[in-house]
Fold this protein.
Amino acid sequence: MPLSDENRAGMEDVGPKLRSTRVAQGLSVTFVAEQAGVTKGFISLAERGKTRVSVPVLLRICEVLGITIGSLFTYPDEPIVHGGIPLYMGGVDLQEYLLTPHDEKWVQVMRTTMQPGGGSDGAYTLDAESIFVVVLQGQLSLDIGGEVRILDTGDSTTFSARTPHNWFNPLDTESQVMWVISPPLPLVGEAKPTANRDRG
């Protein structure tokens, strides 16, 4: 399936980071694939940014590589964030933007725009305590440990980041939400890349 611009942009950035980490550790594609529960071909495509990856699968790959998903992010480095820095933490038919810098100790804020049916593509947990989400536009279907919450524009909810959760846009139009994760997803000593909006 050809990738949409939303998914291609994300994996073109994340894929090479995954590959360089794997190579630096001397791990084979076969080993990473077996440990993550996917095929060698899938890992190869993911590393080249040629396939989309669900949130839970990307988290499993990070676990095999011994890195955190937060170490894959590029962080704002200015006090005023103009629209956010594009990020990709898995999922399908969506665009995500990071709105907080790497030195913010208390919260991490992200904005997600989902196309119809777009979402996490599976349940996952995060290494944080709480997640707050507010729907800015459209609707969000959120499954938290088997409890389904339907949020309309202006609705918000809070839940434990350690409870398996799955989410998607149930509408046939675009939806947009804002996530607040507390505390921020850990970096665990990985490099903290930053992006200046003026860089080419």
Remarks:
- The helical segments are 5-24, 29-36, 40-47, 55-65.
- The longest helix spans residues 5-24.
- Residues 1-8, 189-200 have pLDDT under 50 and may be disordered.
